[in-house]
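Protein in question quoted in full.
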Amino acid sequence: MRNDKQKKAIIDRYDSLVDEDQGKTDRIKYINDLVKDWIINADNKVSISLAVFAGAFGVITFAAERFVQQPCNVAISIVWDCIHKTCFCMGMISMLIALIFYAIAIIPNLTSNSKREDLKKYPIFYGDIAEIDEEEFFKRTEQGHDKDFREELEREIVFNSKVCLRKMKMYRAGVITSIIAIIFAFLGLIARFMMY
């Protein structure tokens, strides 16, 4: 990760460039690198939170199921058992929903960022590059101008920013749902303990 001083130094260096077009291109490349870092960070957050919440849910559920004694009052025990099973089911459903949110956050969007063919003068998106053959790619990159490259890179930045935003929304939804699942699991643990 770059710290703030390094980021400021890079921006200052870019601003001091004499060649205006090269400065614009470099700034756009820098922004593109930042967006890529954001996407990587979003994926890391999803992976870590999934592991932590699934682990916590599993430990609480395992602990609840291992607590076995003779019930002191069978009628009360039946009520607590019903509460325990309900909480366990709700927790499992919540955790499955959280897993779906996490999966949506991690799955890449494999569609092109360009809607019209004439916008792809300088293909840089892997979906666009894969749609053309090798010779066509070389032809377009040789004939392309810096302005075409900057425009396509700007489109890529906007597209990747939307991807990052989608990932973070799904991450937040997954975290909230995971917390709900852990609360249900903990309530199930308490209900299981109250049975005996």
